[in-house]
Write a structure and sequence with these properties.
The chain is mainly beta. It has one domain: Sandwich (Jelly Rolls), CATH 2.60.120. Helices cover 3% and strands 47% of the residues. Strands 2-3-4-11-6-9-12 form a 7-stranded antiparallel sheet. Strands 5-10-7-8 form a 4-stranded antiparallel sheet, with no helix packed on it. A 3-stranded antiparallel sheet has the order 1-19-18, with no helix packed on it. A hairpin with a 7-residue loop joins strand 2 and strand 3. The radius of gyration is 17 Å and the shape is globular.
């Protein structure tokens, strides 16, 4: 596999929403979007006190793209106008295809508002090509134990594979992104849990790398772009 290096780093914009700590790498001061990625919010990490108001994302509309939400810590309730409903906890994901349009809410469950606790969430918006923008809305919520956890070859890390393929294994949602105009796409959470850990990730024409980790200098501050030209 040919090695690639990060070509550019783009600082995130701090843009808190009510009392929710929020950093936004895309769009930011230096970059509008990284096709097909329209938007990325990094909420937290922070700790909510007991008897809190929860997340401020009541009913709001979406159309023409998908949202992929990684619940790193805490939990997130989803409810939409197509009748989908779930509560996804730490380590899980929510993948919603807005398509022709729906209204949804992303809020904290009642138990979280009563008891409080840590919270950290990544949400990515993925554009749909013109031929799919009016597709039927759909939603899939997966808990941590429904997502394949694959050890890296050196045994120092774990890839939690939502979509795409890694070491011959497929993600929980298959190769969904092959239907789009980019050559391939992966959605995964990579934990490098030991000192000196590293991992090679196969990439396509363009790759957006989001780093969210306490120990790394780009933590919560940058999105990195690697690879060849974008389509």
């Amino acid at each position: 596999m040919t090695s690639k290096t990060i070509k550019r780093r783009h600082p995130a914009v701090r843009d808190d929403i009510a009392d929710l700590t929020t950093r936004r790498p895309v769009p930011g001061a230096e970059i509008e979007q990284v096709d097909p990625f329209l938007f990325l919010n990094h909420h937290g990490p922070q700790v909510y006190a007991p008897r809190n108001r929860g997340l401020p994302f009541g009913p709001h509309p979406h159309r023409g793209f998908e949202t992929v939400t990684f619940i790193l810590t805490g939990e997130l309730a989803h409810l939409d106008s197509a009748g989908h409903e779930s509560i996804i906890r730490e380590g899980g994901i929510q993948w919603m295809t807005a398509g022709s349009g729906l209204v949804h809410a992303e809020v904290s469950p009642d138990e979280f508002k009563r008891q409080g606790g840590p919270l950290e969430i990544l949400q990515l918006w993925v554009n749909l090509p013109p031929r799919l923008k009016m597709t039927t809305p759909r939603y899939v919520g997966l808990q941590r134990d429904e997502i394949p956890a694959i050890a890296t070859p050196d045994g120092k890390g774990t890839v939690h594979l939502t979509s795409g393929e890694y070491l011959g294994k497929h993600g929980a949602m298959g190769m969904l992104c092959l239907r789009r105009r980019i050559s391939a796409a992966h959605a995964a959470r990579l934990n490098l849990g030991k000192a000196g850990a590293s991992e090679d990730i196969r990439i396509g024409l363009a790759t957006t790398l989001i780093v969210a980790a306490e120990q790394l200098p780009v933590a919560r501050d940058h999105a990195g772009i690697a690879g060849a030209e974008q389509r």
